[in-house]
Amino acid sequence: MNSPTLNPDLIHRARQSDPQALSTIYEIYAPKIYRYIYYRVGDAELARDLQSDVFLRMLEGIARYEDRGWSISAWLYRIAHDRTIDTLRRHERTHTIPLDAWVEEGEDQHDALELNAERTALLRAMCQLSPNQVQVLRLRYSYDLSIQETARQMGRSQGSIKSLQHRAQQNLARLMRHELGEVSGEGYSFV
Predict the structure, then answer these.
(1) Which of 32, 119, 188, 191 has the fewest C-beta atoms lying within 10 Å of its C-beta?
(2) 158-179 and 107-128 helices cross at what angle (nearest 10)?
(3) Residues 6+ away with beta carbon under 8 Å from 113
(4) Per the confidence metrics, is the pTM higher than 0.90?
């Protein structure tokens, strides 16, 4: 699913504080911004708070917004990125597994723990990628942006995005094998 291109008139009306235009922008981007933030913070309540903050900042700054070749979505994602990074810097977050997950027996709990181990390994592996590699993977797979949209968001050519994505996928697969203690070359690929 690609992001819709907003009508320039809608942006103009939003800059004039038209409630309907602002509401339309919110309806289009709020779920995407939430997913972007939630993926980074892993806490639904915090993600909702940050999502609200992003749109509050949008309301405060929309009159000054100028399309300089960057879409309004790029502007919103930049606000979301900055707010998320600020919050993560202020709060050291730790990931915990409830003790009852370790105590209960059964196939479902075993599968859940295995999935949790893979998620933890994925998070650790992602932390070892370069910031650009992480960003290209998130934009392409978490937010389902096209190569063209990703190139626009990152300010790069489509060819460099394809190359960056390929290297990121190879590195991530290698790091996942290492994190999970697998020595064979098989097991994980990200496409």
Answers:
(1) 191
(2) 130
(3) 97, 101, 102
(4) no
